[in-house]
Amino acid sequence: MNFWVKSVGVSLMVVTIFSSCTKDEELEEPLVNVWPSGLSVNSPVGEYVSFSISVDTDIQLRQFQITSKIDNPGSPTIIELDSGLNNLDFLEMSFDFLVLADAANSNIIITFTATDNNGSTGSHAMRIFVGPLPTQPSPLSETTGHKMYSNNSQNADAYNLEAGLGMISSLNDSTDLDLQDMPLNDTTEVLSRTWVSPAGGKFIKFNAFDYANATDSSVVNAYQSGVGLGQVNDIMDGDVILTKLGNSASFTYAAIQIVIINDPDSTDQDFYLFNFKQ
Length: 278
Known about the structure:
The chain folds into two domains: 121 residues, Immunoglobulins (Immunoglobulin-like, Sandwich); 136 residues, no CATH class. It contains one helix and 19 strands. A five-stranded mixed β-sheet has the order 3-9-8-5-6, with no helix packed on it. A five-stranded antiparallel β-sheet has the order 10-19-18-17-15, covered by helices on one side. The chain has a five-stranded antiparallel β-sheet with strand order 12-11-13-14-16, with no helix packed on it. The two termini are 58 Å apart.
């Protein structure tokens, strides 16, 4: 068999041909069967769709052809053709089709057609529903030098990450407070090293996270690999904390890196210094 591949999206894997001498039923035209069964399959861009094909006929085969066509007014592209089947009446083959980027968000029609020596044809069409182009990760922007003070101080003991502003928790609505220091009691002079989110956010301490190269997708994937909690404890210098903001309808995520924790004897100068990306 001679196969002329006219699409870079095709890879021929295995071809086996058999000749049979008897038939249980007489066929008026070639019978083309394709697996996977059904009329359609789904595929993302850049993946191979594998097909198994068999052709059965009572009249020897003259030609077998595979064409592809994206949903548009143009003509199909011949991606596989064999016109020298030499009186064979049974064909079986495997075929891989690569879904290319130009088919994103569209349908591809793959048609398998067999023609016998009498000119009769049989065919089977499969529709591939193609997903969108994969999005490229976007680096997150970083802001640095943020301070949040002890809840027992007279300073901003909470933080709004979206606004990039420190806030005094007692003077602001809880929905604006993405972060807040949570002391054990209202008299201690020791910084709690514990955060909560009055706005309803969740936290995961994730020191293995690649903060330096954080992207929109990497922070989401890392957060979703764990279980977000309503508070984060035992915060230390260098910790990386991932958070899903509770006051955002768009499900905003942020990565926070603790630079230093300042905890002198006086309460008013107890603070967390941190950078964050979102």
